[in-house]
């Protein structure tokens, strides 16, 4: 007996397009991102996916990707749960800055540490910074300790994993067919756990936009296999492009 779950990073956002650190900034999809979200839905339709429930973040790039994919599947009616714990990792004071320009300024090695290391957080925001999420009504129920001023992947794991274990896993075990639409790093956090990727190896993992990632799980909800739907070479090239976003110009 195995279970299937789809993990989907949103389609290209406007700030992915402009190559800017985004984090909790609520930016829309680009035109290309809208197309990617539709294609993701088509890929799932071609493989006959049917879902009972969807999970996403509180950020419109993931929410809209989910909507567009479900529209292609003609399954827009299913319940959708939005939770901040699936948000992108908070990129602290880097939010808004161009990744390649930051590599010029701080050096590629430093930017790689901020982007991909397990436990080096980007510089934090101050609480009086307009980018601090504490004044945003969608986060009104978060405790001060939960409201980030920055996050490394380890911090993201610390909020994504309890959500996976306490909210999503019971649904899978009950036989519900789920799709999770989230972000590059909230999904890296999950994949790190699922595949038991070490703190050093996780540096090399990049997740492309808008390509459904299928996991098959055994009865203990441990992965048996995973693959990107569609052309594996295209997924590989897209992941490579993500890795290279913070090269100096
Ligand atoms: C990107 C990921 O998040 O950036 O916050 O800039 O998945 O929501 O587009 P997403 C961001 P990198 O960690 O790949 O630089």
Automatic annotation (TrEMBL):
GO molecular function: phosphoglycerate mutase activity
Binding site for substrate: 9-16, 22-23, 61, 88-91, 99, 115-116, 184-185
Gene3D superfamilies: Phosphoglycerate mutase-like
EC class: isomerase
Keyword terms of this UniProt record: Gluconeogenesis, Glycolysis, Isomerase
GO BP annotation list: gluconeogenesis; glycolytic process
Superkingdom of origin: Bacteria
Active site: 10 (tele-phosphohistidine intermediate), 88 (proton donor/acceptor)
Pathway terms, separated by semicolons: Carbohydrate degradation; glycolysis; pyruvate from D-glyceraldehyde 3-phosphate: step 3/5
Catalytic activity: (2R)-2-phosphoglycerate = (2R)-3-phosphoglycerate
Record field: transmembrane: none
The enzyme's E.C. designation: 5.4.2.11
Residues flagged as site, Transition state stabilizer: 183
Function: Catalyzes the interconversion of 2-phosphoglycerate and 3-phosphoglycerate.
Family recorded in the similarity comment: Belongs to the phosphoglycerate mutase family. BPG-dependent PGAM subfamily.
Protein name: 2,3-bisphosphoglycerate-dependent phosphoglycerate mutase
Source species: Pyramidobacter porci
Chain's gene name: gpmA
